[in-house]
Design a protein that fits this description.
The protein is an alpha/beta fold. It has a single domain, classed as Aldolase class I (TIM Barrel). About 30% of the residues lie in helices and about 20% in strands. The protein has a 10-stranded mixed β-sheet with strand order 4-3-1-2-5-6-7-8-9-10. Strand 9, helix 7 and strand 10 form a beta-alpha-beta unit. It is globular and about 45 Å long. The two termini are about 30 Å apart. The model has no long low-confidence stretch (mean pLDDT about 90).
Length: about 250
């Protein structure tokens, strides 16, 4: 295998967001992103080294020279899985935006999927790249970027719709980050896109987390947005960032 990939970190933790919240996963965080969301709390820039937990769940890290080859990553995950059999539900491929690396993923994912199921966390704006890697995925967690919270432009709506259409037939869920200024029109727009692809697709409303660790939205506003979404869709859930609440990676 060739096509080394730039990553920022590999660690073991509890999934704190979306459909698999509460599951323990091995996280492989890839570098680079095509967006610059206002609330993003992740450093996804390329570095000369990446940090890898010395033991899964230890929160102590080695720093390895970049880029890593697919063989190195697969070998690491094999060793972790053998050292803690049954502890991990799946492998989360996250970022940044992992679909910026479709070539590397087509080489990496088959080996990883032979170890554990694959969970892709994506901003849902790269449908063509998704088509190249979707045969290797078990779960797709797709963000829809609301202008009110992300600061992104309105043009993403069309990309989100194309992405979701490309996901049909797979275990896909949608997450939106909500804040006090999130409008009902944004929520209805999200619901309309989901409805066109499959009204049974789960929608997760995630209150934005402020730098203080507090939610940036009142309970009353959360309930109002949940009521609006639930009037259109059959599966709407509110889940804050659980890993932030637990102080986990």
């Amino acid at each position: 295998m060739s096509n080394p990939v730039f990553i920022t970190e590999v660690f073991s933790s509890i999934q704190g967001e979306g459909f698999l919240a509460g599951r323990r996963q091995i996280f492989i965080r890839l570098a680079d992103c095509n967006l610059d969301c206002r609330y993003c709390d992740t450093d996804y820039s390329r570095q000369d080294t990446c940090r890898v937990e010395m033991r899964p769940g230890s929160a102590t890290f080695n720093h390895l020279p970049q880029p890593l080859s697919p063989q190195e990553l697969v070998g690491l995950i094999i060793r972790w899985n053998e050292s803690l059999p049954g502890a991990h539900h799946s492998i989360s491929i996250t970022g940044g935006e992992p679909l910026m690396h479709p070539e590397a993923l087509t080489l990496l994912l088959p080996g990883l999927r032979s170890i554990l199921p694959i969970h892709l966390e994506t901003n849902g704006t790269m449908p063509d790249a998704l088509k190249r890697v979707i045969p290797y995925l078990n779960y797709i967690s797709m963000d829809m970027k609301l202008p009110s919270t992300s600061g992104c432009d309105q043009h993403l709506w069309g990309l989100h719709q194309s992405f979701l259409e490309s996901s049909i037939g797979h275990a896909v869920s949608v997450k939106v980050v909500i804040a006090e200024n999130t409008g009902l029109d944004e929520i209805y727009r999200v619901c309309d896109i989901i409805n066109q692809s499959g009204p049974s697709i789960p929608l997760f409303l995630q209150p934005v987390t402020l730098s203080t660790g507090d939610p940036g939205i009142t309970p009353a506003r959360i309930l109002l947005l949940q009521e609006a979404a639930s009037s259109v869709l059959g599966d709407v859930r509110v889940i804050p960032q659980m890993h932030r609440m637990l102080g986990a990676l």
